[in-house]
Amino acid sequence: MYLSILLAILAECEGQQQQEQLQRRQQRQPQQQQRQRPTREGTRRQRRHRTDKAKLIQHYLKKNGRLEGMVRIVDGLRENEGNVEIYHSGKWGSICDDEWDIREATVVCRELGYSDVVQETHNSMYGPARYPFWMDNLYCVGGENNLTDCRFDGWGISDCEESEAAGVICKPGPLSRLTAQQTSTTTSTTTTTASTMMQDIIGSKGKIRLRGGRSKEEGRVEVKIGNNANDWGLICGDGWSLFEAGVVCRELKLGYAQNALQTDFFGGNRSSLALSGVKCHGSEKSLMDCLHDRFGAVSCPGNANNIATVVCASEMADLVPDAQEMMRTAHLEDRQLFFLQCAMEENCLAASAYQVQKDDPYGWHLETRRLLRFTARIANMGTADFKPFIPKHMWEWHACHMHYHSMEVFAHFDIINSLGVKVAEGHKASFCLEDNQCTHNTEPVYKCANYGDQGISVNCTDTYHHNIDCQWIDITDIDPGIYTFKVVINPEFKVAEMSFDNNAVVCTLYYGQQYATLFNCSLQRP
Where in this protein does the record put region Disordered (predicted)? Predict the structure, then answer.
């Protein structure tokens, strides 16, 4: 993968070495003509020369810090796809998929010499993370030369699990060594690589079951793949998420998916794997209606514990954002960066704001940003409380705002133009999930004061008022016009819900020179 990079470095090294040798030869007059040595000695000299080249490359990389920040993709079926790893402080580490999108993937593919990016991947699509996470919550513009040029939480600061590894699928380009044989689609009767419905291979009457759990609501997922009583196969955990787990729980009449795990905790032999690349929309009645990539001789990426498992529950939370409140409270505000320094620490402004800070280290705080502010009121209409997915002792303390983040990514805010291109965005961390207002005689349970428990009770709402930091979208860089405004709650689907079909509010945004308004809002699937 790094052949072209190493060749360029080697050429530079050899150039420096040849200059030094030329200078020494000019300073030294030969005393006598050297005899030609035997061929065997010449062969030894060639071997030593190749060894010297390798040592020279390694020495040059270390001397110039070229290894620091280098990325690679691993565990893919082809060399242009896989989970992304980055080198820092002498060790390789994984990258978390929080905030991971096409822009970060573009930087990775460009750095590796590919012509373009095809897709970013989430949920450890190519197996569980092999190393601890070096990076989390990456924010790239897309034009950076290296991931280290992007904003992120800091080296080794992460709340991610091994099932949250970020990955990429790059488009082969001139610098890629992909061959036609590697990219061809297998057409044998035992293995398929194209995404097809499971019922086309197994049949519409295919069965599933859970095994190895401590109760009937949990276990590894097994699929009936033959006519014999023992013909049951496992599902590879590549990309296994709450969407697929939800279909399994619904089909087995076990309620809702509480967890979608990639683990061998519930047993299972890797040699029994029969399916991989299973993908569901989430609304299917049966797992047979979902797509899959491979069947039969499955090559499951990652280590031995990459087996699809589920934990089901009869009761579940269901968050619903209030579209009317967003329309009522939306307004513009112009504010200097001096008053937005805490928000800048939490990456709540557009990339141009950070560029201003870099270009003008003395006067950047006088720059004015235009913010589209609005109130987000989130109701729990489910049958169970909504709670953060990470334990309390792992909540992150933000000194500037003087509060804990129980979820680093609780909401995404996007503005999209008529071509479907995202032109502005924002995000909100859940610094305080609590019961602000409750109905049906429900008593509030969750309070954030004094490091209290966080969550949203059933029939209660959590409200982020428009005057709170980061409760906005920085629209400084977009022109007045008509856009699509989108707010997504629980955008990375890390916390289980009854349904994700009502987690997004989509509105029409009219942005004028002096004011902005939202209208035609509706609840949609993210």
Answer: 21-50
Strand duo 481-489 + 407-416: pairing: antiparallel
| CA atoms in the 13 A half-sphere facing the CB of 390 | 16
299 with 436, same domain: the answer is no
287 located within any domain:
yes
3-class SS of residue 328: helix
d(CA 493, CA 490): 6
What letter would DSSP give residue 396? E
Residue 430, number of CB atoms within 10 A of its CB? 27
What is the phi/psi pair of residue 55, to 5°?
-65, -35
Q: State the CATH number of the domain containing residue 227.
A: 3.10.250.10
9 contact partners, CB below 8 Å, separation of at least 6: 57, 60, 61, 66
Q: How many domains does the chain have?
A: 3
Cα–Cα distance, 499 to 406 (Å, whole number): 22
Q: Is residue 50, in this structure, part of any structural domain at all? A: no
The enclosing H or E element of 416 equals: strand 407-416
Radius of gyration of the chain (CA): 27
Does residue 217 sit within a domain? Answer: yes
SS3 category, 279: strand
Are 379 and 393 found together in one domain?
yes
Same domain? 364 vs 457 = yes
What are the pLDDT tens digits along the chain (526 aa)? 444 455 455 555 555 555 555 555 555 554 444 444 444 455 555 555 555 655 555 555 555 556 788 999 998 888 889 999 999 988 999 999 888 989 999 999 999 989 889 999 988 888 888 899 999 988 888 888 899 999 888 898 888 888 889 999 998 865 443 333 333 333 233 333 446 766 666 666 678 999 999 999 999 999 987 777 678 889 988 889 999 999 999 999 999 999 999 888 898 876 677 888 889 999 999 998 888 877 666 778 776 678 899 999 999 999 999 999 999 999 999 999 999 998 888 889 998 999 898 899 899 999 999 999 999 999 999 999 999 888 888 787 777 777 777 787 889 999 999 999 999 988 876 668 889 999 988 899 998 877 788 899 999 999 999 999 899 999 999 999 999 999 999 998 989 999 999 999 999 999 998 999 999 999 999 8
